[in-house]
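Reading is simple: each integer encodes one residue's backbone shape. An example follows:

___
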Amino acid sequence: MADLNDVETPGESAAGAQNLTEADHATTNGDVQETDVGGDQGSETIFQLTVHLPHDPKKIQIMVSSQEAIHDVRQSIIELPGTLQYSCFHLEHNGERINDFIQISEVKGLTSNSELTLVEDPYTEKEARLHSVRVRELIGAAGDRTDTLHGLLSGTSLHDSVTGADPTQNGSSAAHPMSGYDFEAPGVLSILLPENQEQPPKTVKSISVSPWNPPPYHLRQKGHLLYLLLTTNEGEQYQITSHVSGFYVNKSTNSKFDPFPRGPPKAQSAHSLLTLVSKLSPSFNASFQKLQDFNNTKEPLATFQITNATPSSPWIVPNSTSPLTTHQADITRTQESFLISGIENTETLRDWNEEFQSTRELPKETVQDRVFRERLTSKLFADYNEAAARGAILVARGEVAPLNPTESKDAQIFVYNNVFFSFGADGVGTFASEGGDEAARVATGKDVLGVRMVNQLDIEGLFTPGTVVVDYLGKRLVGQSIVPGIFKQREPGENQIDYGAVDGKEVVAADERFVSVFEKLSKALKVKKHAVWDKEGVCHLLEGSVETKGLLGTDGRKYVLDLYRITPLDISWMEEYGTAIGGPEPVNGSSATTYPHRMTVLRPELVDAYWKFKMREWVNGELEKRRQNQTETTEPAKTLEIESTEIPPHDSKDEQEVGEASGADSTLTVLEKTSDFDKERIDVSNFIFALNPDAFSGQEPRTDAEKEQLAKDEQEVRLACEFLRANLLPELVSDLKEGDVGFPMDGQSLSRLLHKRGINIRYLGKIATLAEGKRLESLRTLSIQEMVSRAFKHVAGKYLRYLPIPLTAACISHLLNCLLGADLNPKPKAEIDEAMISLYPEAGLDFQKMSPESLREEIENQILRRFQYTLEKTWWSIIKPLQLLREVSLKLGLQLEMKEYCFSTRPVKSHVESVAPVNGLVAKENGVNGQSTNSKKKKKARDGSPASVVSNVCSPQTFSPDDVLNIVPVIKEASPRSSLAEEALEAGRISIMQNQKKLGQELLLESLSLHEQIYGIIHPEVARVYNSLSMLYYQLEEKEAAVELARKAVIVSERTLGVDHAETLLSYLNLGLFGHASGETRMALSYIKHALGLWKVIYGPNHPDSITTINNAAVMLQHLKDYHESRLWFEASLKICEDVYGKQSINAATLLFQLAQALALDQDSKAAVNRMRESYNIFLNELGPNDKNTKEAESWLEQLTQNAVSIAKHAKDVQARRIKVSPRVTLGQTHPQLQVGQTAQAATGRDPRNTMGLDSRSIDELLKFIEGTDQATKKKRPGRSNPKRRGGAVS
């Protein structure tokens, strides 16, 4: 832990980030309101300190909090623009040195008027190295880094390109981003790339380590630390000595070594290298200022270093000649690892396990303790995940020597950077009876999930090893921190494990010391204490599954390992598909349709859902008993209502944890809430529910009592499996059918939705079968696409697993040709360099034999076995090629070159053709329906390769090996979420729901500050909290704050989740909505246009939720008084709606109602009357003549018919109130799309049943309105409308 001060190199801490964004308020971690949350932290104060400096500007003021560490104050000073040059110093107060690691409140005599003095320290070699690295970064001399892990353009953001592309900025008020938009144009891949950036100004030619480095022994004695070489913009070259006292120009040349100071007039020295460079180069100060201005034009969030999360790597990247990815000469690139971690390279070696466990043992009494502990945990997990992923890639590429080289490939183990690696395959036969390699692969994935849940529960005295699973080129690697004592040879008679099964269930250990911690764990995971039997038939009572093992480390800590079976087996599935133990068929895959393994466990979310269900039954039963005992029935009736509403609202929090295991903590809060309400009524603690995770796993009880107990346990598990099939699956399908929840757009969002609902991915086949009819066609297509892409991942993995690295691109491109290019070339040939093959005589080149037919057959078999679903005969003809390519690339980690891939011989509607209608756009625009012509010309000039020149004459194969530019690892990790930040967020939400707005907003800000402090700014959880808060602020009418937060949400999710991730798309839609509400309508349309372009790539055109989006855009166009264009958008929205919901649906009626008004505005009164009549007829048929919607439509119909003439005159005035009329541009507008699978109710906190309602005004008002007599009130604020009106659940 001594290295704490290295954890945050400059520019990394959340603290620093906050300073840069809020320079006027230099508090490091905005923990202003911590007092509210902590309660016991009443002593916190914020005050200003003066710091005296040795050089100009001689003194600065900074805002600090008494709770901050001096270390954070140092960080603020290092990052303020005026004091960038300091990095090696200490602070003094009244002449006494202050320790960096104490809190400000602990400094004796320090008050708000105190003055601190900054004193420059002598350098050490390490300080000198880090100072050089920092100065190189500050002055922009650090070139591009070729990173072994993150891939091309990782962590990139398109936000600046999207805002920069707004044509209205050049003053033409006529064009808006949507003019001439083509709804039918196919998706364009170029939308996923940022525009070519102009290069930042150069401040020096180069700054690097000198060839004379390191100093010889006798000079090290004299305080020489490093020798550097500087070439200024003027072309002068200087040799510089880094000395304990600072930096000076020495007398060395390239051929002569003389590291002592130069004499005057050329003598220059300074304590900081930055100051020295500015003295030596006359042009430096001006160019450094330009560089800072250049950096300031960029969105700071888009340039911050990502320290606490894995940056996302896009699957489409520019080709190698693009200015975005140019490779520059930079000698210091190779020296950087020396500069960062020293000659011995040992400074970066960390004892991961000790760090994890000692962080877990930190105190968590006060809020301050918890913030510190969670912040450290977040950073530690991020560092470990990165180290483990880097190691896994090296192991997969064969760069690390195994510890047991004589074993078979799959059984080899490795240690690199203090991480222990093994393959996620059954190398030693542990899983032979469960399904071999397949079972081992699944077990590692489930283990990560289990470790994450245990980390989230944070049980005192129970420890887990750091665990990461990395999929790379068909290999699955598991990286674990090394648990002390795991390799220890035990004495004869001692077991290798202290609790749980040893050596494949034959021996069972049950060390009493583990009972207390395992009991807490099992209670939280709803696992039943149960009996298991070893091979001697001896019965042991275990708290957890027999597979979950406890190990007493040599450090005395209790570790829990192998968490892949914390929930019971899905017996319904196993019996149905021949993998149940004792079933008729063996599991080694003898039958073509048997599921490939036995690791089919239920999801923890299912256990939670079933627990809630059972609890509701139990409470209702108790109430029933009480009803019979009591005469007055009023109170219990009230309880029942509370009970049923108390448990479901939990979904609103799940917004941020879609797909995360929501863990037992959330369940406990529900319990607490329920028990609060029912204190005097029902004692919930009497309700006991737990499942036996070893049911159906082949246990053999001996006595009758034991047999009876096991039969009961098995029945309970069976009922849980039935609950999944009878309740959860149909519920999900009907929710999506009714359009009450956000609709998934791609495989990722579909998987998260299923997981959140407790449904395993293996049920995709069942979902595809249930998704019948027009309305669920999108769901069916998505499910099939997801099954195909997962099957392809398994097929590709089989061929790639043992293939030498240089042959992998050929293999991938050939398989992609067989999958997606068969229309273009039905007999693709693998393009392999013969010379390469001769280097690897042992390589298995079976993939060359693959043809489109054989690949389809393999995919069909995989889908039949894994999802128990039979594809239609010609399934490949209905698959969407671009979307499937994206899914496959994301699953395999491919980074493909951006070009137009030809999937068939039919002349595609090329992007060049579709440019014609877009010419209204400015050339710079990264057009949604095709790039504008100018940028396409540039592109052609740039790409010489014939394949990349876009034309209708397609190359003979869709993909060539050169298209696969890189492969990035796909990482599964186990970092817990911050419970503190989530508690504050939840408390803020609840306060706002209870109408305590002021308190609610304070809590929300507090939660935001905690999220930023704990996770750092650039982190997916922070993006989600920005998103939730922007929505809440929007509802509280704080428009500007909503826009600012939504913008941050967009950038952070682009950088951490992906530029085309479903959440990023939804963030763009929200940003557009809020931007429009605060008057930035043109900008809002740019965002929406970008989102629609993303939609075409992610899903294809006509996604059910895009009805809302297109509708919103139509309303915005009306706002710009472009009535004709807006009418076209309403028509487009109606067309999709009729496709999805049917022509006679209420949703279609709502849209017809709006379209009629739009037509009236566009002076087409005849069409308006017809549309309104259609709308009225649907309402009449569906809702009856007395429904208020029917009446509303009827009155409008009369008015439109009578006032055809006056409408033509006055309709323009309707514009002012237009937004009020639109059912969907209200608070609920894109809100129900907030997260895939989230209900409108969870999004707005309102009842989704009352979703109709068209216009909130009375008919009299409308009459005045249409006749134009109501002009006085026409400047009504847009976007504020009857909150109940969400307009036809058009979700």
Remarks:
- The two ends are 51 Å apart (CA to CA).
- DSSP finds 44 helices and 24 strands in the chain.
- The domain at 1105-1291 is CATH 1.25.40 (Serine Threonine Protein Phosphatase 5, Tetratricopeptide repeat).
- Residues 253 and 1212 are 79 Å apart (CA to CA).
